[in-house]
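User: For my dataset I need records formatted as: sequence, then structure tokens, nothing else. Please produce one.
Assistant:
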Amino acid sequence: AVHLLESGGGSVQAGGSLRLSCRASGITYSTYCMAWFRQAPGKQREGVAGIDPDGTIKYADSVKGRFTISKDNAENVLHLQMTSLSPEDTAMYYCAARAGTCYLAPSWYVIWGQGTQVTVSS
């Protein structure tokens, strides 16, 4: 069975940083798109960043220059380094996977983690 487990969420003040991790079992990172999504209360789930099997990276405009996605294929771990956080980044962050290319729209994904909460205070 495929399983994604996120970690690293927490509370931080505006301007701070957090590093999220997603560990997978049952899939091989080298053949899957791995992506991060987030969902704030009352809002739709939105794509944050994705990394294709060939290493091509996509970011949402709202996080470009502040967030960095990376993966360790040997360890099957995905990371999201978040810097210059603002209260608008407060959300539940989810890891997701799909075979092939990443698309930063949640409808393309059926494999999801349970999420990790990120709260940024002003």
